[in-house]
Amino acid sequence: MRQNSPLPLPLGRLCGALMVAIAFAAAAPARAEDPSTLWKIVHGKCVPNEQAHKNPAPCAVVDIKHGVSKGWVALKDIYATAQYLVIPTARIPGIEDPVLLAPNATNYFAAAWQERALTEARLPTSVPRDMLSLAINSTYGRTQNQLHIHIDCIRADVRAALAANLDKVGDTWTAFPVPLAGHSYRAIRIPHPTLEHANPFHILADKDPTAAADMGKHTLVVAPVTFSDSGEGFVLLDDKADLAAGDVASGETLQDHACKIVLP
Asked: What is the per-residue burial (b if ≥16 Cβ within 10 Å, else e) of 185-210?
């Protein structure tokens, strides 16, 4: 996650110190010095609480019906308006972990899309699917060493660019015609209304074998769209880190954490 200034601490509230501690722990990991903060929340709090008490707190959801090694949680980021993070309950540092490319790997992007209702519920009006997005940052664009997928609103300019260039997105990786948030992306179409049978990690590696050997440099963004010929689907966007050019491959920058695209 990107770095932002922390909000002022709440005062004069019962058990205020405890509430602040929990809020900070659940906040954007870039605000924490410990790169294992997310893992400690998931492994040390959410999963044990769900196992012992059927209560996912401080997470919103803990899904371990297929075991902890295959499960995931949804955790609210209190510093963004409606953003949630989907995080594996297994120890997976990030996009570079080869376990994500195993044939039977959990499709964490599908889980994130499933949990988009959590983000929608934080907003005062219904949200068209193409105003949402999913993103995972590269190893250079993150500060936490536990895989997490951001569920949040998409930036209005990114949504407009996708709509204007949708006919240029095909079934193979192709350079997207215009920069997005100042960076060059490539794009590929996912012609399915859900992600249950389309794992973006697999698509990146399968459609570009060179990426499979260097996954950690990549960032992925999933943007819902409606294709004129096949209906609801997604555009999968990919950027590769280029440190010399100042690009850390943080697809999260294509998201709008204030959800201005939805809010008046």
From this structure: bbbbbbeeeebeebbbbbbbbeebee
Burial of 172 (0-12, 13-18, 19+ CB in 10 A): exposed
The amino acid that residue 88 corresponds to is P
From residue 226, how far is each of 51, 116, 262 by CA, in Å? 40, 17, 18
The pLDDT score that the predictor gives to residue 101 is: 97
Q: Is residue 157 part of a domain?
A: yes
Whole domain around residue 77: which residue ranges? 16-256
CB within 8 Å of 40: residues ≥ 6 apart: 25, 34
Question: Does residue 164 lie within any of the structural domains?
Answer: yes
Q: Please report, for the domain that includes residue 129, its CATH number.
A: 3.30.428.30
| Count of domains forming the chain | 1
Model-level pTM? 0.87
Mention every residue, 6+ apart, whose C-beta is less than 8 A from residue 130: 154, 159, 162, 163, 223, 224, 225, 226
Return the pLDDT at 165: 98
- Across the chain, which has 264 residues, the per-10-residue mean pLDDT values are 38 34 38 84 98 98 98 94 98 98 97 98 95 98 97 98 97 97 97 96 96 96 95 98 97 97 89
Is 8 among the domain residues? Answer: no
Read off the amino acid at residue 202: H
Q: Do 152 and 260 contact (CB within 8 A), yes or no?
A: no
**Under a CB-based contact definition with an 8 Å cutoff, are residues 184 and 176 in contact?**
yes
- The answer to whether residue 48 sits within a structural domain is yes
